[in-house]
């Protein structure tokens, strides 16, 4: 079973922010796959179903971004998974708006949600899909940037990136992660 987890912050205040592209991704995949996100637990909102013939759990942690590891720990314990059974989808300032990058593992690269997950699962070896949200206009503006909303010009780019991310996951499940990386990591270059 693949646990597909989109990171974000809970609450309507954060719903359309850059930090919540992982939640937007989960909502899109749930709609496309007809998986209802109706199981509300203390640490996560989730739904179970099948995508491309594979059993999947779609989840949105109910913890704030910097504590994402708590939600991941809960999901791995509940479903008897290992870090390699995860696919974590989240925002990435190092990528321009509209770009995506799928990887099999790696460091947190300064992302506090991923830092929390690595600390909780004690491994960097879990697949992740980063969705570019661009750099802040000025140095030191990281928090206002990720907690801010996309501009009118950026919104179509991020909507397409989320669509591309969903297609990458479909490809990963139908073929494998290497094929998906080769096909989708070049989009937008």
How would you characterize the overall build of this protein?
- The protein is α/β, with parallel strands linked by helices and 189 residues long.
- The protein has one domain (2-184): Peptidyl-tRNA hydrolase (Rossmann fold, 3-Layer(aba) Sandwich).
- The chain contains 6 helices and 7 strands, in the order E-H-E-E-E-H-E-E-H-E-H-H-H.
- The chain has helices spanning 21-33, 68-79, 112-121, 142-146, 155-174, 177-184; strands spanning 2-6, 39-40, 44-51, 54-61, 86-92, 100-103, 128-132.
- The chain is globular, with a radius of gyration of 15 Å.
- The mean pLDDT is 93.
List the helices and strands and how they pair.
Elements: E1 2-6, H1 21-33, E2 39-40, E3 44-51, E4 54-61, H2 68-79, E5 86-92, E6 100-103, H3 112-121, E7 128-132, H4 142-146, H5 155-174, H6 177-184
Parallel strand pairs: 1-4, 1-5, 5-7
Antiparallel strand pairs: 2-3, 3-4, 6-7
Helix pairs in contact: 1-5, 2-3, 5-6
What is the level 1 CATH name? Answer: Alpha Beta
Query: What average pLDDT do the residues reach?
Result: 93
Percent range for β-strand residues: 15-25%
CATH topology (level 3) name: Rossmann fold
Strand numbers in spatial order across the main sheet: 2-3-4-1-5-7-6
Order of helices and strands: EHEEEHEEHEHHH
Classify the helix fraction into a percent range: 25-40%
How many β-strand runs?
Answer: 7
> Which regions have little confidence, pLDDT < 50, spanning 5+ residues?
none
Taken together, the total number of domains comes to 1
CATH 4th-level superfamily: Peptidyl-tRNA hydrolase
CATH architecture, by name, is 3-Layer(aba) Sandwich
Distance between the termini: 32 Å
The computed structural class is alpha/beta
